[in-house]
What does this fold into?
Amino acid sequence: MSARCAIVTGATRGIGRRSAEALAERGFPVALCGRTASAVSAVADELTERYGVATYGQAVELRDLDAARRFVDAAREHLGPVAVLVNNAAELGPVGALHRVDPVAWAATLHLDVAVVAALSAACLPDMLDAGWGRIVNMAGGGVGGPSMAVGVSAYTTSKLAVCGLTEALGNELDGTGVVVVALAPGTIGTGFMAGAIDAAGFPGADRLRAMAEAQGQKTKAAELVGLPSYQTLSNWLAKYKVGTGWQGS
It folds into this structure.
């Protein structure tokens, strides 16, 4: 069992939950956060029962950067120095044509999906640099660039492109330190992440987004996500990925 912990944000369901399970299975004490205290507590208890690891869970409003940093401090106090950070928490943001969506909501999405990723990384890096080893996993999202880019979710897509840029910039800063950062692109997965916003929007591009989500949802359920290539990539990379920076896709 590791004497250093892993932190996973947005860990109560879907990708975040499966990431927390993968880390617990490898013996890491896991600190996890989400929006609902009862859901966080349930996942933390399950990880301890199933994998025998120490856990720390907290409901956190990550948009509050001071609260995000306090969560890292609390994780460190309860579980020890941070070895791994999985920046999974994100929101889809406003759905619709750019000229029709709320610009305040659009900017708020970039704050959560990008600024919080940077703030949490900065809070965890001192432990990693002191140890000469650390891993930061940033979720880059599906449909970033190329012909499959989703329509009508410009805040989300822009934020994930920014996460990729942050990953590369931070990777260059960390070159030679033993701390490695990557962006994982799991693709469109049927976790329900997009469903509510799409159904509520009623804009022309919603049908395409819904079809993408439903097609993927037919192939996999949330309970089966651990078998997807992105999770194999996560597990293998934690153990074996040694050099450079880069994009680890599904």
